[in-house]
Write a structure and sequence with these properties.
The chain is α/β, with parallel strands linked by helices. 38% of the residues lie in helices and 11% in strands. The strands form two sheets. The protein has a three-stranded parallel β-sheet. A hairpin with an 8-residue loop joins strand 3 and strand 4. It is globular. The model has no long low-confidence stretch (mean pLDDT 87).
């Protein structure tokens, strides 16, 4: 549907930092990270926090400080982690895995999911307080199968981009190719 592109456009449309540079943008697809690693991916960890943590890691929340954090498939997050995200949003503070000191962060969050979060709240699979915290400005993006008029526009865009990236002459799509 273009969730990541919309999140990036929102982030770019917001002001950069006081140095005049672009604001940081970090993202995490909650469905793509194993449940055992997702907390470390989000909040980072200190060296030795768990087996394999041979060095400290910053985490996506910290990487998005003074910028935007895009949480894709937030409906897939475990309830225990939802509580930690809510705390970080409300208090603007978090702790790295294995850490004891609290770190301050000022991060804008854009969250996306393909799930019905209202139904997940009703089924107690998603925290109601986090749902209301995140749904300040909901944007509904219909799936591409509903927006079939966008397909030719997207097809032309990708053909042009790939030709440019591969330094090939621009190809044209035939009418029959677009009708398929």
């Amino acid at each position: 549907t273009g969730k990541e592109e919309i999140a990036l456009a929102l982030a770019e449309g917001l002001a950069g930092d006081e140095r005049g540079g672009p604001a940081p943008f970090a993202q995490l697809n909650a469905a793509a990270v194993p449940e055992t690693l997702i907390e470390s991916e989000l909040f980072g960890h200190i060296k030795g926090a768990f087996t394999g943590a041979t060095e400290a890691r910053r985490g996506r929340v910290r990487s998005a400080d003074r910028g935007t954090l895009f949480l894709d498939e937030i409906g897939d997050l475990p309830l225990s982690l939802q509580a930690k995200i809510l705390r970080a949003l409300e208090e603007k503070r978090f702790e790295r895995v294995g850490g004891t000191s609290s770190l301050h962060v000022d991060t804008r969050v854009v969250a996306a999911t393909n799930r019905n979060l209202k139904a997940a709240v009703g089924a107690r699979q998603f925290r109601e307080d986090l749902f209301f915290r995140l749904s300040v400005f909901p944007i509904t993006i219909p799936p591409l199968r509903v927006r079939t008029g966008d397909i030719p526009i997207l097809a032309h865009h990708f053909v042009e981009r790939f030709c440019r990236d591969l330094t090939k002459p621009t190809l044209k799509l035939s009418h029959s190719a677009l009708e398929e």
